[in-house]
Design a protein that fits this description.
single chain, alpha/beta, Macrophage Migration Inhibitory Factor, two-stranded antiparallel ribbon, 6 strands, about 25% helix, elongated
């Protein structure tokens, strides 16, 4: 299961259409046959809108209506900042080639929704132990198995 937590200002991702388009791009990273081809229901995306009084970058609220002194280093504090944490459980990144392909797919998925809108942004990826993961109380089938194919087709956890 990938879990994406997207932290953003209330002035970003303001409509269901914007969120749905981003979620579709994220889901495609994992469910596309060229990718790991996970069941769609594995992909979880959460949006957390944070007021600038609860979202600081470099000690400055983002976005901030007040610019710091022109001698301050760093980005323009009036620009919204988007922080994404990604937890991957269902698959591990096995080598540098797979890592680079995955990160490129993430960058490509985010570009029209974040970078092209001029937001400042960053993300990090955490891989957690598959051994400590269950769905509906069930141990998920191993990657590439017939059982995982059933979960993908049914788009839900199925007792096998």
């Amino acid at each position: 299961m990938p879990l994406w937590a997207i932290y953003h200002s209330p002035s970003t991702f303001t409509t269901s259409a914007e969120k749905s388009a981003l979620v579709a791009a994220i889901t495609d990273i994992y469910t596309n046959p060229a990718g790991p081809a996970l069941p769609k229901f594995y992909v979880v995306v959460q949006f957390f809108a944070l007021e600038s009084s609860n979202f600081y970058v470099g000690g400055i609220p983002r976005p901030s209506p007040q610019n710091p002194s022109s001698n301050e280093p760093g980005g323009d504090p009036s620009i919204p900042f988007v922080r994404i944490t990604i937890q991957n459980i269902a698959r591990k990144i096995g080598n540098d080639t797979v890592r680079d392909r995955f990160l490129t797919r993430v960058d490509d998925a985010l570009k029209p929704h974040i970078e092209d809108k001029g937001y400042d942004w960053e993300y990090s990826v955490l891989e957690t132990s598959r051994d400590l993961w269950k769905v509906q109380g069930l141990v998920p089938p191993m990657p590439g198995t017939e059982e995982e194919g059933i979960w993908r087709k049914e788009n839900k956890a199925v007792k096998l």
